[in-house]
Amino acid sequence: MPNLPSALADDPPSLLPRPWADDCRPGESRARQEPARSQAEAARQLRAAAQELHEAGLPLRDVGAALDVSYQRAHQLVSTAATS
After folding, report:
1. Residue closest to 65 by CA, chosen among 57, 53, 56, 79
2. Spatial CA neighbour of 45 closest among 83, 81, 70
3. 69 — alpha (psi -120 to 50), left (phi > 0) or beta?
4. DSSP 3-state of 3
5. Whether the Cβ atoms of residue 77 and residue 51 lie closer than 8 Å to each other
6. For the whole model, what pTM was predicted?
7. Residue of 59 and 19 predicted with greater confidence
8. Measured at the alpha carbon of residue 14, what is the angle toward residues 5 and 27, in degrees to the nearest 5?
9. Quick one: which of 10, 49, 54, 61 could link to 71 by a disulfide (CB 3.0–4.6 Å)?
10. Where is the composition biased (Low complexity) (predicted)?
């Protein structure tokens, strides 16, 4: 081992920078997964809403306006809702 101060020789520092080392605690991965689950659920609900509006007879432009997305995005949402 190179010549380290005695405090470091007894307890070598982690190879990860401190903020990264702190993030590696058990249970924190679940906390990071929660936003992804919420985002996936919101996307699922948006697709379902687009599909429902379109099936009710609304043109894609109106579906887009109702969901505050472009008509192109409304088309994508309706298309992916139909396949999922």
Report:
1. 53
2. 81
3. beta
4. coil
5. yes
6. 0.62
7. 59
8. 150
9. 61
10. 36-47
Sign of CA dihedral 17, 18, 20, 26: positive
**Token digits of residue 21:** 């080392």
Q: Are 64 and 70 in contact (CB under 8 A)?
A: yes
The rounded distance, in Å, linking the Cα atoms of 76 and 72 is 6
For the chain, give the number of residues: 84
Amino acid (one-letter) located at 19: P
For residue 70, give both structure tokens: 């472009």
Residue type, 23: D
The residue ranges of DSSP E strands in the chain, in sequence order, are none
Structure tokens at 32: 């990071």
